[in-house]
Design brief:
Layout (H helix, E strand, L loop, with lengths): L7 E3 L5 E3 L3 E2 L7 H13 L3 E3 L7 H11 L7 E6 L6 H15 L4 E6 L7 H13 L3 E7 L3 H10 L6 E5 L7 H9 L3 E5 L11 H10 L3 H11 L3 E2 L6 H8 L8 H8 L16
Parallel strand pairs: 3-4, 4-5, 5-6, 6-7, 7-8, 8-9, 9-10
Antiparallel strand pairs: 1-2
Helix pairs in contact: 1-2, 1-9, 2-3, 3-4, 7-8
The structure holds NADP nicotinamide-adenine-dinucleotide phosphate (NAP).
């Protein structure tokens, strides 16, 4: 299928987003985040997923600048946190994120969570931010079908991306189908189940067939489904291992077997019942 670490997918507004990147949630701010991002960029990662909530936007900016890569080669996502909802507050939160990152433009700005109450006003702020060219694309995270339906009913801009928890063990087909229908790219967070299923014997057996580790199988499964994958690691050896997923292809029968592992496993948060 010809995927490579440099592959990008065209979002619904024409912006091209890398299909593979590094998530930096729970990587301690400071040298640890800077080291992880630097390693990832050296290995060939071109997407970094951070958030105000992660507390390490500053370090992402430092590492990206330190890499010497042209700014437009690295795609940076950050997110508006739950206590920054509302039109004016979200605009301010964006400016603060932009300042911490130290870049004039953010590639993708997401609503982190569908907080009830002000989220429609927050989306209006994101639309303005995009219109002014400060974010190249805008999107949402943890939005399930009812949240997306509500948003689409009043939005001028259809979200480019919905970042949701996704792995063979949590494979929410309804929201994935909805996103496909509306040309919203699906980005998989916690693709390694935060480690909870990396000793699963069924995954190990699939890995053995291809000479690959369980994390590599999990990432490749998501890529072959067309999801954007952002595994997190702070360890150089894992960062490298997780990128070795472009030299093999999981066969259709093994993909089907992996698809059938769904057990509704949430390892982060579950937004299903968020009103
Ligand atoms: P994850 O990527 O599923 O798993 C990370 C865990 O797996 C860490 O404990 C990491 O440990 C370990 N790991 C990584 N590579 C490994 C390897 N090759 N072998 C063994 N263990 C390995 O978890 P996640 O951080 O929750 O999700 C990824 C990213 O998605 C986050 O960093 C964040 O950017 C995003 N996210 C977004 C939301 C949201 O609400 N929008 C929620 C959760 C996550 P080491 O660091 O020791 O390698």
């Amino acid at each position: 299928m010809g995927l490579s670490i440099g592959s990008r997918m065209k979002l619904n507004n024409g912006v091209e987003m890398p299909i593979f990147g590094l998530g930096v949630w729970q990587i301690p701010a400071g040298a640890t985040t800077q080291r992880a991002v630097t390693t990832a960029l050296e290995v060939g990662y071109r997407l970094i997923d951070t958030a105000k909530f992660y507390g390490n936007e500053v370090d992402v900016g430092i590492a990206v600048r330190g890499s010497g890569l042209p700014r437009d080669e690295v795609f940076i996502t950050t997110k508006v946190w739950n206590d920054d909802h509302g039109y004016e507050t979200a605009l301010k939160a964006f400016e603060a994120s932009r300042k911490r990152l130290g870049f004039s433009t953010v590639d993708l700005y997401l609503i982190h969570w569908p907080v009830p109450g002000l989220r429609k006003e927050t989306w209006k702020a994101l639309e303005k931010i995009q219109k002014e060219g400060k974010a190249r694309a805008i999107g949402v995270s943890n939005y399930m079908v009812p949240h997306l339906e509500e948003l689409l009913a009043s939005a001028e801009v259809v979200p480019a991306v919905n970042q949701i928890e996704l792995s063979p063990f949590l494979y929410p087909k309804e929201v994935i189908e909805f996103c496909k229908k509306h040309a919203i790219a699906v980005e998989a967070y916690s693709p390694l189940t935060k480690g909870h299923r990396i000793n699963d014997p069924r995954l190990k057996a699939v890995g053995q067939k291809y000479g690959k580790t369980v994390p590599q199988i999990l990432i490749r499964w998501g890529l072959q489904h067309g999801f954007i994958e952002i595994p997190k690691s702070s360890r150089p050896e894992h960062i490298k291992e997780n990128a070795q997923v472009f030299d093999f292809e999981i066969r259709a029968d093994d993909m089907r077997a992996l698809d059938s592992l769904g057990e509704g496993l949430h390892v982060a948060w579950d937004p299903t019942d968020e009103p």
